[in-house]
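Support case: user asked for a sample of complex input and structure output to validate their parser. Sending the pair below.
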Amino acid sequence: MRRAVSIFVLLASGVTAAALPFTVQGRVEAGAPQAQTQSAEVKIDNFSFTPASITIAVGTTVTWTNRDDIPHTVVSDDKVFKSKVLDTDEKFAYTFSKPGTYPYFCSVHPKMTGKVVVQ
Amino acid sequence: MTKVKDEILHDHNHDGVDRRGFLKCMAWAGTGALCLMQGGVLKSYSLSRLSDLDGAKPTVGDLSFVQISDSHMGFNKPANPDVAATLQAAVDKIGALQTQPEFLLHTGDISHLSKPEEFDTVDQILKATGKSVFFVPGEHDVLNDDGKQFLERYGKGTQGGGWHSFDQKGVHFIALVNVMNLKAGGLGTLGHDQLEWLESDVKHLKSSTPVVVFAHIPLWSVYPEWGWGTEDSAQALSYLKKFGSVTVLNGHIHQTMQKVEGNVTFHTAASTAFPQPAPGQAPSPGPMKVPAEQLRSVLGITDVNYVRGQHALAVVDSSLA
């Protein structure tokens, strides 16, 4: 019974944009990234990127949304992408066209780090 | 918050401070700190306690100045929807001081989003003090432009990212910048060029010269998990070893905190905008919301006396009223 309920919750929340990161995470765990995925979301909350690591297919657009009361940035360690400062609820999107691993951080609070793996 | 007794439970370093006492010193107040230089010894008082101080003996010093910090002009979230009013309140307190400070130090995060109008507002409010203000940038002041705007406004006669030094009544003041070129996963950074400059800046000074260093991010490891520290601060402090009295003033953590290490006393000032949680006491260092009526009131008081030649931190009163 508990299992049925949790599956229902997952399906129900799967239609909302907010739950997208969980969908992506689930795929990572399953070890089967799908080429059709065209967008993914990362939340910036409590001075951290969630999920901190995502695996996506080439061509996917990742959108970061700052949900903190404090501004943050999204800056690739290798200067591949760099957002302007994002105030509360502001977004930054980047489309990954090449496979690879892209570590990134918040240049205002460098303890905040994340990673995008493009397959 | 509750009132805690002032008793020392474990004094491992024989410095008169146990861990609990140290944590308790991190009381945060709403406005800023008054610093008095007396015979090379710096004493700091929370601005909220100045009514106790005015006319009293400690205000008769060789040099007095006020440190304010973290105005975050432009911030408008529930933790403080009117940061201009609280900065004004800080200015009013400074104006009411019986012993007027010679000048002000602002230890960064003047603005919240590096917008010109935010800097303009702070400049307007601080102008009313009629005092010179020495600024160092916080990370919020150098967003998007690597500090270009900050340097144009406040960086005349400074070097690199805005570092400089000056002398006032025999005290050597050093302004350091540790919010530029931050690296992924790291803390605040001074960088090679600034360290080199610092070494040569203090080389010619007599060891008896009192030194005051001010920078935004703490120059000691307050809580690295939240980025509250500076990668290469140890090297900077190594250049200051010869001095009998070194006082380091920082902001960034929006709460007062003190520490004494050998010849160096460290002090962080409260914000004029909003408080932040004590290290590790919240999921993140984000703004701490308190009831509106508490925002301006004194929530923490930390009067600390530093005594030269006696490496004891004398906490006069660190309880929360």
